[in-house]
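Purpose: get a first structural picture of the assembly so the mutagenesis plan has something to point at.
Setup: two entries, given in the order below. No constraints added.
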Amino acid sequence: MFEMKGGYTGRVLCFDLSLKKARVDSLSEKEAFLMLGGKGLGALCLYRSLRGKEDPLSPENPLIVSTGPLTGTIAPTGTKFSIVTKSPQTGVFLDSNCGGMFGVQLKRAGYDMLIIKGSAEAPSVLVVDENGAELRPSKLWGRTTFETIVELRKEFPVHSFLIVGPAGERLAPISGLMTDDMRSAGRGGSGAVMGSKRLKAIVVGGKRPIEVYDPDGLKRAAWVVRRMLRLHEVTARSLPRHGTVNIIEAVNEMGALPTRNFQKGRFEGASELSGEKWRSGLWRADKGCYGCTIRCGKIAVLNDKWVDGPDYETIWAFGPNCGIKNAKTIAMANYLCDAYGLDTISTGVTISFLMELYEKGFIRELDGLRPAWGDDEVFIRLVEKACKGEDCGRMVEQGVARLSRKFPGSESFAMHVKGLEIPAYEPRAAKGMGLGYATSDRGACHLRGYTAGQELLGYGGGVDPYTIEGKARLVIDRQDEKAVIDSSGLCFFAFYAITLKELHRMVVACTGQPYKDWYDFMRIGERVYNLTRLFNVREGLTRKDDSLPRRFLNEPMTEGPGKGQVVELEPMLSEYYRLRGWDEKGEPKMETLDRLGLKELLGSNG
Amino acid sequence: MQTGKRLRLKRIFGEDGRSVVVAADHGLMLGPIRGVVNLRETLTRVIQGGPDAILLTPGQASSLVDLFHGRDAPALLVRADWTNAFRDKTYTLPARVIRDVGTVKVDDALALGASGIVVYLFIGLGDEDEEAKNIKTISMFSRECEKRGMPLIVEPLPMGERVTKANYVDLVNLSVKMAAELGADALKVPYTGDPYTFERTVKAAGGIPVLALGGYSGVTIRDSLEVVEEVMQAGGAGIVYGRNIVQAQDPGEMVRLVRSIVHEGRSVLEVVGAAKKGRISLRVEPAACVGCNLCTAVCSLYHYGKIDIGRARLRVVQEWPSGAKPVVCVQCGKCITVCPTGALKKGSKGNVELVEELCTSCMACVESCPQKVILFNEEANRPLLCDLCGGVPQCAEWCGTAAIRVVEEDV
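Result (structure tokens, whole complex):
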């Protein structure tokens, strides 16, 4: 085991559920240098663990929990960890970035990464601490996430948990994972992967210190970041006060708030769902993760229930996207999805798809329910059925892509990319987002290539949302930045105020790794993006999978500032491949892999 | 340099070559934001603090001209262009593409009685034609300024779609050098965030005075003042603060504080009175705590050189479903009274001190602590006590919400 100078614990815990055996591997210093941690190291581990075309729900698909070198340190917002696995929803690479104490506790237990393979005989809980891991049978199978937290808390007062809800247990493709502090790794079906392993929860805790290479240097660098967060409007005021939904009115104004399954870009009830309305309405408290004072998290109170959120994406998915204007309905749906472990974006978009199927006459009713736009009562019943897996809920939990196959002719408005439902920005009114959705490694994702800040919100001086010129470069820059941020352990939101320069200083002080400058970090992001591309190519993805629903390509917007716009994807995609150093089919060229050191890193596996 | 330029620059920079400039030209770019709605009232208060210069748009300069009367009045700087670049979603109507145009001629600024004009230099725009136009505008200003003896202050700004999280500092330095080559007499530059990189920016200017600009205002006065201190450390000539001053509770006082750092070389800690002299004590405000644990993390880093939140000399109790409360040593002295050997005593800062040789490791202090914040170091066989970090408790320093704060004890 090599001597880690700081930041990393240098240890990787591998647990085989089938064999009930734990093994501790050492982290390679060189790999840590090249991939940083989190998403990057997780992606490398996943790439090597599989050969391609395995069933994501088979025992050989690993569930990887991966922290970054800054997770659990004094780096402000250093709370994040990544869930990395092959997605049962898309069949390709999945990383899901999550906050809260779980990643911090994993480091305190003495591990940078946790790799879970195999499948338990019976429903179990995996308890991880300084001494390794122990698999215990669990009677909590079938219980909601909230009930599970309460039960586990009795036995483990200070540990953190990562929990699968009933939806993940029954392998619903749109199920996610929840932590004990109600942060979620929602997207792409990591819940089903854990469910397929018959693992109800991972419990982790420990008391090991996290070593720091240069304590004073880290303190100075972190202090600068702390101050920068306090000097930026978004991190000092907008997010703390109005949460992530602070942008809803601006997005609506730009005609980019997808409404009724992306039929329109403006919602008549948007101002009723603004941050200020939530603040004076259902929200009762602010909530932040470890190391973070931004507190973008909000707690709503609904009758006798505490609801974590809802955040922008959730408010949109259940609100404008389904024609719902009532905040209470949205909060209730949020609560149900959290309790049963469904991804709110995917749930909302699948229900909006059903509503459009109904509108267009593909279906007449669902178990006696008529899913009309904006019908609160029917909507909540559908969410409930999806959560519990009852009747037509079985359709919802499949997600849009699988569902649309049952309705020939519905593909053009089945809003997904690679099987993952499209989130809350209309790409015809922000074309970089369109390219971002099409090329995101895990399927449609707003954060991997977040050009919306520039295209819609005017950040950094703004960018023309309707032109396709320069968008390939813009998307690549945003994707690479996000990939390295997700590998560091920091939260994306800190980067409204800071740059990779601050990340560079903190990582060097924390780890002692010899990064030359902050451009090295941009290259890590690029390396991660090429590696996940290699993974997806091996799974059989081709250029035609880097696409968008036909609604975006062929149906011009009917109103708003983006009236008449469609996404001219093909030219953007060709430029994107060229700038990425990928061939016409979208496969990374050998010289690109060589330049990034991936050829050497992957060796004969490459 | 011509006499006109020299005289006017002296109005801005004074004898020590440093300057505190208050920018109040926001209305043209951002609309009626807080602090500039009633500009006369705000500036009347600002001037009480004695700024060296005030930056205004031409329209406001003519209507507020009486504020600049008198021998000790601040110099007037005139904003000579307009841009939409700052209009993000925080303001009405986010910008779609950056545009910048000149609004007045140098002659107009002369007629207004200006001691200098300020123009933007954009770098990083997607549309390079726009960048070229911007350079042309600045060159024209530069030549006219030369003829009329008017100081030209260029404000280089990396903005637009080609700015990344990696190239930002290099773009600042590139544009600073470009501005110098275009004939700028002084620069108004975004602070790069830390004194190490900003020193390079100052060097890139090649001797032309560099004033750092502020941007959004800080959560506390201290946030803003730290930037001023670092800019001066890095060799900057001063600061241009807008919102940090015009949106301050007491703009005049804020100017005075900034002046004391820029012109008198005082430190932030001195200025905001964070360095407490006598006995101190910690107090908590549980409602303000968000449970981020930065306090415990920094406590352990300070004392052990590693992050070990479980061994911090305070703790954070998390509450469901949100919120938390910090539990700190409040220097109540219970441990001192229960210690059977007199090994504990009050230290000079008000902290509890351990006299090593008298300690018998009996654990009485650990067990009696009402806050349960005295831990026991098994290896050393000694209790771990809050030492108030030698007078600057790190937990309070790092707390972002003032949930932990330092109070001076009445002696």
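Chain A touches chain B through 75 residues (CB under 8 Å).
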